[in-house]
Amino acid sequence: MMFRATVLTLYPEMFPGPLGASLAGKAMGEAWSLDTVFIRDFTRDRHRTADDTPAGGGPGMVMKADVLARAIDAASPSDDPRPRLLMSPRGRPLTQGRVRELAAGPGAMILCGRFEGVDERIIEARGLEEVSVGDYVLSGGEIAALVLLDAVVRLLPGVMGHDQSGTEESFEAGLLEYPHYTRPQLFEGREIPAILTSGDHGKIAKWRRAEAERITRERRPDLWSAISAKKG
Fold first, then answer.
1. Can you spell out the DSSP letters for 83-142?
2. What share of the chain is helix, strand, coil (3-state, %, to 5)?
3. For a disulfide at 63, which of 37, 118, 156, 218, Cβ 3.0-4.6 Å?
4. Where is the tRNA methyltransferase TRMD/TRM10-type domain positioned along the sequence (predicted)?
């Protein structure tokens, strides 16, 4: 089953962008598909207005619920099994676990917010799942949608050259990834750790696990605390 992504945006020209290159680009049309929906096509005034001033006052503009409802209903009818996502800095953080869930499903409808955000009523009325790619604010949801789709598409069957590539990396076991090395054996006085060229796969596995734990403890104490809590 092909993973089907539909992106609702005020800037359809931003897609596929980097998703048209490298692994994702090669897999497009075979492992996954991408459609864009221009939100302004669902306006009903001559100015094609998709936003308005915020109720209660304040700076900026808010994307209109009625326009978004028409766009969502056209792109994702009620019998569409795909989750409806809204890229938003106030959403739940995107995790590798959620990425894997999405990659195992039929696809996703992704709404890219702009301005100050979207009318809260459309989130409630259309059951949008708010997703954040980090604790910072972007100009709009398009770049966040590209990030999400890149993370998902690389996990689709056949996209990566080696199936194990998707399992031995950061966050898959709650840990950051262990260090990697390749030839030359000696680089500016620094050697590849001897254990990696020993041929002893059991010791190599233990070394990699220990290094992953060390890096996680040092750089992401939040992740390490969660692992320690599970062990306890």
1. -EEEEEEEEEEP-HHHHHHHHTSSEEEEEE-BTT-B-HHHHHHTT-EEEESSSS--SBHH
2. 40, 20, 40
3. 118
4. 4-225
Say if residue 113 carries a ligand binding annotation. Answer: yes
Q: Is residue 180 situated within a structural domain?
A: yes
**Closest by CA position to 209, among listed 229, 195, 222:** 195
Q: Confirm whether residue 134 is marked as ligand binding.
A: yes
Considering only residues 1 and 144, tell me which one the structure prediction assigns the higher pLDDT.
Answer: 144
Tokens in use for 37? 């929906």
Residue 168 has pLDDT above 70, yes or no: no
Residue 137, marked binder:
yes
Q: Residue 227 belongs to what domain range? A: 168-231
Is residue 133 part of an annotated ligand binding site? yes
Average pLDDT, the chain: 95
What's the domain count of the chain? 2
84 and 173 inside one domain = no
119 annotated ligand binder = no
